[in-house]
């Protein structure tokens, strides 16, 4: 199945176009929205072509999600660790946005491969910011260090006014199928699991049940942590994407089936009632008027025919 990319493709393309045309004084002012109501705004002025302003608006957090200064906990530290001197966090951010970054494009490395890698990381600002709280907890898990708040229920935002919960606990891994030994255990329940005891009632009023993933230290070793953070934080979008793809596939199959039926119906002969009268036969029949889907006209169908020999 297709996994969603962590970077914004439009943002990456905008950055690449700007970097490859630094000598051209062109103004840039773009606004767009991506899935889960994450909004972006980029701006470049003709006076300072090396300065690239990037603003990000995050989904509206639920009441049980902890935000510090309009950002998830640990987001500022995650931005500084990911981008270093390349970006500057502007305070206050642009009106209507949670975060505004000022990128100095002149500080990009000259090597094209390294430059592209950094730009992809910049285009993944959503993962860096929204995944900051999850990254801290998973790093403790990867290093097998027990955090001080190990029993605390952590709510993480991923969609407007919705959150998912992270429960740092110790689990015993059960025997599993050989082909899925490396995958995190996953389960579904129509009712809230016991680990969510104490969570707000609004957060537990799900209409489709609860999906539980169990993450072990081996799942977050080395560079695996970035993929785990992105997969968990975009799980709802991942499922919605494949459900819509399945619906589109079914609709396509239905259209093809209808087209084949219409083509077959074109080969059917429509009996002309007047020809039957001219042949000298007298018929008594009940008529049924139906709509011809192919020609768009009304035709007479004769399902039952009774013939009489003329006297």
Give helix and strand order, one letter per element, not per position.
HEEEEEHEEHHHEEEEHHHEEEE
**CATH C-level class of the largest domain:** Alpha Beta
Q: What spatial order of strands do you see in the largest sheet?
A: 1-2-3-7-6
Portion of residues in beta strands equals 15-25%
Q: Return the domain count.
A: 2
Second rung of CATH, namely the architecture of the largest domain? 2-Layer Sandwich
Shape: globular
Radius of gyration: 31 Å
**Estimated structural class:** alpha+beta
- How would a crystallographer describe the biggest sheet? 5 strands, antiparallel
User: CATH topology of the largest domain, anyone?
Assistant: Yope Regulator, Chain: A
* Amino-to-carboxy terminus distance: 75 Å
The helical percent reads 25-40%
* Total beta-strand segments: 15
Task: Look at the structure and give the mean pLDDT.
Answer: 74
Counted by DSSP, the helix tally is 8
Contiguous runs where pLDDT drops below 50 for at least 5 residues: 170-175, 282-311
């Amino acid at each position: 199945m297709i996994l969603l990319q962590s970077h914004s493709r439009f943002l990456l393309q905008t950055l690449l176009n700007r970097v490859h045309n630094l000598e051209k004084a062109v103004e840039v002012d773009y606004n767009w929205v991506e899935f889960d109501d994450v909004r972006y705004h980029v701006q470049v002025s003709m006076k300072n072509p090396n300065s690239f302003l990037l603003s990000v608006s995050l989904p509206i957090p639920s009441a049980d999600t902890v935000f510090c200064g309009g950002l998830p906990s640990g987001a500022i530290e995650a931005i500084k660790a990911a981008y270093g001197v390349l970006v500057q966090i502007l305070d206050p951010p642009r009106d209507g946005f949670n975060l505004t970054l000022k990128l100095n494009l002149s500080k990009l490395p000259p090597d094209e491969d390294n430059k592209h890698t950094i730009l992809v990381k910049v285009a993944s600002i959503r993962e860096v910011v929204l995944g900051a709280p999850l990254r801290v907890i998973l790093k403790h898990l990867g290093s097998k260090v027990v955090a001080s708040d190990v029993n605390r229920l952590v709510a993480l935002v991923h969609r407007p006014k919705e959150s998912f919960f992270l429960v740092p606990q110790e689990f015993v891994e059960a025997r599993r199928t050989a082909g899925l030994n490396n995958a995190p255990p996953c389960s579904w329940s129509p009712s809230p699991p016991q680990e969510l005891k104490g969570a707000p009632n609004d957060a537990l009023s799900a209409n489709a049940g609860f999906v539980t993933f169990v993450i072990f230290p081996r799942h977050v070793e080395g560079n695996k942590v970035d993929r785990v953070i992105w997969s968990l934080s975009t799980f709802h979008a991942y499922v919605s994407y494949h459900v819509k793809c399945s619906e589109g596939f079914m609709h396509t199959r239905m259209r093809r089936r209808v087209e084949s039926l219409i083509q077959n119906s074109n080969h059917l002969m429509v009996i002309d009632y007047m020809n039957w009268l001219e042949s000298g036969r007298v018929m008594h029949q009940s008529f049924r008027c139906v709509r011809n889907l192919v020609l768009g006209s009304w035709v007479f169908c004769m399902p039952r025919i009774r013939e009489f020999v003329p006297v």
